Amino acid sequence: MSDERERVLEQNELTAFNEAVLPHLDAAYNLARWLTRNDQDAEDIVQEASLRAFKYWKGFSGRDCRPWLLAIVRNTYYSWLRQRSVQPELTTDGEIDDPDESVPNPENALIQTVDRQMLKAALDDLPLEFREAIVLREMEGLSYKEIADIASVPIGTVMSRLARARKRLQIYLTNVAARNLL
Amino acid sequence: MTCRETKNLLNAYVDGELDSTGSLGVEKHIQGCASCLTEVENLHALASAIRNGALRFKAPQRLKRNVAAAVRAANPGARRTIFNWRWASAVAAAVLIVVVSIQWTKPSNETLLVNDIISSHVRSMMVNHITDVASSDSHTVKPWFGGKLDYSPPATDLTEKGFRLIGGRLDYLDNRPVAALVYQRNQHFINLFVWPSNNTGIRQEDQLTRQGYNLIHWTQSGMTYWLVSELNLTELSECARLLKE
């Protein structure tokens, strides 16, 4: 009964996949939600990415499948963008203008008083690549190496993106806080 | 380490991505550089604000269910299982249909024949065409069949015994033209179908009741006899006994 054996193996495969991957669905959704900035699109992306993940599951031999799943989510999102003929917001990091360096560093106190809404608005305002790096680093706690693998960029680029993203966030939050004080 | 060199490493330092040499260099520098120290504090503050800001989206339960279901459906093993079940039930249904067909719509030769005999009997009375040749005289009825059949059916007159021969008719049964002899007992009609015996596997003698009609069947002298009537079985048996004499 090789058919039956195969079926059992495939059933085991499904169980293994569910046990390894489904616990990371929150992470997958979080990334998709920050990338799409939209509930429904995020759900569609995660659904599609999960199916892709299951398809590639047999070829996956890594130990930690969370970065692997997040990479699939990211790729699914980018192909989804292409399908919708939407150009990604940016193509190369060089095209992103950094804030004026002359802007003074914000006060520590201002950062600590920002509320969730302000922070969310600041993150949503980030260019796609920066937002992606921040989410993977600050919310998913991934290493530079893992982020570099997911985004298919050198580690140096990850470091640079994070630095520039944080600078933007600080300035955005300082400006909002300053406006609120007026 | 210069201030400029240090600033380039501050993010990696805060993120714990520097090796021990790099980390020591940054720590040494920020002890004597207020600007870099402030930046490190700002980076820590921002990181903790994001981490503690409840900014992480949780997947809706609906999505978790949908994903689990979609993956299950995409599992080739699961699909094959479902397919096998469908296939198995289709086969089971087909077998059942065949069995039912054999039992009900494709009955045995005998059942088919019995149904035909009853139909012929009923039809013979419904269309008011019970006889082609109306005669109580066996010498009239018997020759009438000559030339219409390749055999000569007995046409016994039993009028004196209470079963009046009223005529004969040509019918079609068991894939052949057969002789139908019609008797009357009081207000009841009796059809006697006669044709040369063949090997239909039908039992030598039989009595049965179908759809309210009684049938008696026997073979004698190389001929098959089927007697059918709504007459009760006792009187019909009497008729059969007289015909066999």
Task: Please describe what this structure looks like.
- The complex is a heterodimer of chains A (182) and B (245).
- Chain A has helices at residues 2-21, 25-36, 39-56, 65-83, 108-113, 116-124, 128-139, 144-151, 155-181.
- With 182 residues, chain A is mainly α.
- The longest helix of chain A is centred in the C-terminal third of the chain and has 27 residues, at 155-181.
- The N and C termini of chain A lie far apart (78 Å).
- The mean pLDDT of chain A is 84.
- Chain B is an alpha+beta fold.
- Chain B is 51% helix and 21% strand.
- Chain B contains eight helices and seven strands, in the order H-H-H-H-H-H-E-H-E-E-E-E-E-E-H.
- In chain B, helix 1 packs across helix 2 (20-31) and helix 1 runs parallel beside helix 3 (34-51).
- The termini of chain B are far apart.
- Chains A and B meet through helix 1, helix 2, helix 3, helix 5 and helix 6 of A and helix 1, helix 3, helix 4 and helix 5 of B.
Put the structure in a nutshell:
Chain A is mostly helical and 182 residues long. Chain A has helices spanning 2-21, 25-36, 39-56, 65-83, 108-113, 116-124, 128-139, 144-151, 155-181.
Our estimate of the beta-strand percent of chain B is 15-25%
Oligomer: heterodimer
Low-confidence stretches of chain B: 79-83
Spatial ordering of strands, largest sheet of chain B: 1-2-3-4-7-6-5
Quantity of strands of chain B, as a count: 7
Give the biggest beta sheet of chain B.
7 strands, antiparallel
How much of the polypeptide of chain A forms β-strand, as a percent range? under 5%
Mean pLDDT of chain B: 82
Shape of chain B: rod-shaped
Cα gyration radius of chain B (Å): 49 Å
Main interface pair? A-B, 50 and 42 residues
Radius of gyration of chain A: 19 Å
CA(first)-CA(last) distance of chain A: 78 Å
The geometry of chain A reads as: elongated
Q: How much helical structure, as a percent, in the residues of chain A?
A: over 70%
What is the mean pLDDT of chain A? 84
Q: Indicate the low-confidence ranges of chain A by residue numbers.
A: none
The secondary-structure class of chain A comes to mainly alpha
